[in-house]
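hey so i finally got around to running the thing on that chain from the lab meeting. sorry it took forever, my laptop kept dying and i had to restart like 3 times. anyway pasting the input first so we r on the same page abt which one it is
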Amino acid sequence: MYQAINITFKDAVAAWAHKLFCFKGRARRAEYWYPYIMFYIFTLIGNALLNTGAIKSVGLLMAFFAVEFIGILLFLPVAVRRLHDIGLSGLWSILGYLPVAACIPLLINPQRFFQYIVMQIAFPGDNTLFWTICIAFSVMNVAFIILLLIDGKKEQNKYGNSPKYVFAADADEPST
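ok and heres what got predicted. didnt touch it at all, straight out
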């Protein structure tokens, strides 16, 4: 019989930070989602500052995007461990990170990247490839999020023991 071990917000964030660059083993949902929620709040605040015009410097804007991009990459190891927790290979993380990699042109030349996007939207000629890629990336992200939300396997798998569940002897069995 397996029993779930509760984890606090503080413990989940500490576990994420402690294993920041570790791709081996398994991770609980809390270990991924609690730090991600903190990062998402940071991103929302930054985007609100961008949208209100509080950030006017191009250098500051690029720094914000760079920090956001690096932050997303810091979630790759824990995403791989989350996938291990449900018994999947870390290669499934391509579903979530291929769209992120497609944003690299934004960091290299943001003005040209935005011009391209505006042209695709403003002049809807033969944009089949553009919209197909947008839809495919959206579907990939939704699939990736669903995988990260699935509860981990209770049993040990090829990636290690469950970080959430421990095997407890049945109460009916006499102790020796």
